[in-house]
Amino acid sequence: MFRQLQHIDSAFRHIRAFSLFFLVACTVVSSLALYHSYRQVQAAQERIYILAGGKALAALSAGRRENIPVEARDHVRTFHEHFFTLDPDEKVIEANIGRALYLADGSARRAYDNLRESGYYSGLISANVSQEITVDSVQVDTDRYPYPFRCYARQRLIRASSVVTRSLITEGFLRSVSRSDNNPHGFLMERWVTIENRDLSSKSR
């Protein structure tokens, strides 16, 4: 009788040990399954399909922080292209300047007001002068916030008789704001100033 009770007790301990082992194994397997499922869902959400020419092309999305240097440089480049690309047409000038002013604070507005009051834009229109800009490079320091930037560009003033090439260097700071149709990069240029704007060459046409 006593030996039979010992066998029952031993069997109960074995069953309890097996049950605990089975429970731990199930917990581990379930946790691994949940983890891998989460990773799969996350990977699927990062994959974007772009429809181009009737074909679906796969692309991978990236976080905001990873794209800050690229988006910041493009924001500065876009502002300068809008602000300095001008034709002898009042509506074109107003449209380009209007798009540029969405990307910057009051420092850009003051620069525009100063140029307008000095007769710069009316001079372009009356003399039929077109102005183009080529941004050579944009340097942005993303280790500090707001992000300091410096833009190096060349302007071309195209007149009926000549083409003048000028060097343009500006700098300022970039602050993060909400994205919108008028400001797709989600940055605002602040304290924008022109460091250099001088003639490099002049060619007759």
UniProtKB/TrEMBL annotation:
It comes from the Bacteria. The chain crosses the membrane at residues 20-38. Keywords: Membrane, Transmembrane, Transmembrane helix. InterPro entries: Conjug_transposon_TraK. This is Conjugative transposon protein TraK. The gene is traK.
